[in-house]
């Protein structure tokens, strides 16, 4: 497989490509979970009639926080993984990937009681992807 890819005329290392793609896993998992949740019986009715989902008020602040944390940060990190150089790239991915992995693990522990297989599956996939981000970023410093 190719070890480098041209990005704006410069060679891009293999680990950067892997990390950028891995940042899309938590994002897509979150979006898939939201779509699947909306297909559960009664969820749309509750949202339309009460403005809540499973007792949680869907206000503008919560939606903004979700947009930033669950959508924008993974997209920005995917882009930054391809564009930042050297140790700042590695440390940013280690730090943000590690924090997100811990947050997803806490969410997984909370959601296990709900026994919703699709949520657990998407969280496990996100945790594995985030752990791989940290691993590839950590491992890449040995090559630099």
Report on this model:
This protein is mainly alpha-helical and 144 residues long. It has one domain. It has helices at 14-22, 24-38, 43-50, 60-83, 86-112, 117-140, and strands at 4-7, 10-13, 52-53, 56-57. It has a two-stranded antiparallel sheet. Strand 1 and strand 2 form a beta hairpin. Helix 4 (60-83) packs antiparallel against helix 5 (86-112). The chain is elongated. It starts with a strand and ends with a helix.
> Which stretches are poorly predicted, pLDDT < 50 over at least 5 residues?
none
User: How much helix is in the residues?
Assistant: over 70%
Number of beta strands: 4
List the secondary-structure elements in sequence, H or E: EEHHHEEHHH
When the domains are counted, the total is: 1
Average pLDDT confidence is: 87
Number of helices: 6
The major pleated sheet works out as: 2 strands, antiparallel
Please give the order of strands in the largest beta sheet.
Answer: 1-2
What fraction of residues sit in β-strands? 5-15%
* Helix/strand class: mainly alpha
Q: Radius of gyration in whole Å, from Cα? A: 18 Å
Query: Distance between termini?
Result: 20 Å
Dominant shape: elongated
Could you give the topology of this structure?
Layout: E1 4-7, E2 10-13, H1 14-22, H2 24-38, H3 43-50, E3 52-53, E4 56-57, H4 60-83, H5 86-112, H6 117-140
Antiparallel strand pairs: 1-2, 3-4
Please tag this protein with its features:
elongated, mainly alpha, 4 strands, two-stranded antiparallel sheet, 144 residues, 6 helices, two-stranded antiparallel ribbon, 74% helix
